[in-house]
Amino acid sequence: MSKYYEDREAANATEREQHLLARLPDALRRACERAPAIAQQLQGLDVNAVRSRADLAQIPVIRKSELLEAQLAMRQGQAGQGLPQVSRLFGGFSAIGWGEAARVFASPGPIYEPESQRKDYWGFARSLYAAGFRSGELVYNCFSYHFTPAGSMMETAAHALGCTVFPGGVGQTEQQVQAIADLAPAGYTGTPSFLKIILEKADELGVALPSLKRALFSGEAFPPSLCKWFAERGINGYQAYGSADLGMMAYETSARDGLVVNEDIILEIVRPGSNEPVQDGEVGEVVVTTLNPDYPLVRFGTGDLSVLMPGRSPCGRSNMRIKGWMGRADQTTKVRGMFVHPAQVASVLKRHPDIQKARLVISGKVGSDVMALQVEVVQHDQEALARIAGSVRELTKLRADIEPVAPGSLPNDGKVIDDIRNYE
What we know:
By secondary structure, the chain is an alpha/beta fold. About 30% of the residues lie in helices and about 25% in strands.
């Protein structure tokens, strides 16, 4: 039996990158033909010329808030006149409609996302396989089956592997214990916290659940302490990182060393609030271009922070890796009654290329806020600092102190705005 779900997981990294980027022009061309919002995003760009990551970086990032705004505007009749009903419902981003879509789901907003009838549409079969799931097993699925796609994500992946699924869903803990005892599933999919609740309830009831040997978790943090807790009960738990917009983006392997990026996406790390990729090793926002022909999102900003990890995974998989979820990129805050956004800080850096990195620190107490922009600069004088202060005032409508710091001294945590005010 193969060590990998597909042999290409261990392919030469350079060849994989070339193959992935070679698929990009055709994917963008199809997206423009069937998804009006993508055509608008790529307007004025020769998609046939997009053949490198540098070319891709010319395309503006679309963030989740913009996806929601587009859907709301079209649903309310403010935009998208002349488009089919389904195009308006999905904000012009979906390439499929009713009939082609097997299901439609809703995320908070609400944002509606389609699921097509393609096998393993969400791409989680790869992560299930890496977690040890195999054909012929029963998978006990405790993700929700209503509104959000998490339940379907795991079910379609398990079916792609040749597994049978029990749709446990959420809640009804005692019934979950009974069903697991009766059915003896080999593995669990769901959140780690819910499996912990089930196992603790089983202890309380005096019911043994020895069949569970593996688990694939998503939807919340899976710290080493919890990994150890499950391991002590004979359950090997792994995590996968995904979203309702993009499906599975990265997954944990037996190496326990970061998350390996999915084979069919192009993942970038960009400076929060900007379109610009960061330097290798710098924390930033996860931005994904998916080659999904049904829901072809291009440079979609997840709003999550992470960092690329160097080298090849010890498990033998050769794709790039990310450290995992490291916080949220949208650090928007309110200062003196005005919202301040990471994009405004990014605009300051664009105006002043001598700034290598910046961090806007908000301190003081509510009602007496103090705003300071810490800037990494090699050389500076009062005149240069005054120009930076002027840009901050112009872009944010707020005054800020400019504090020069040594290059490389700001934390590598992806924070562009750091709110340290005392709210007591």
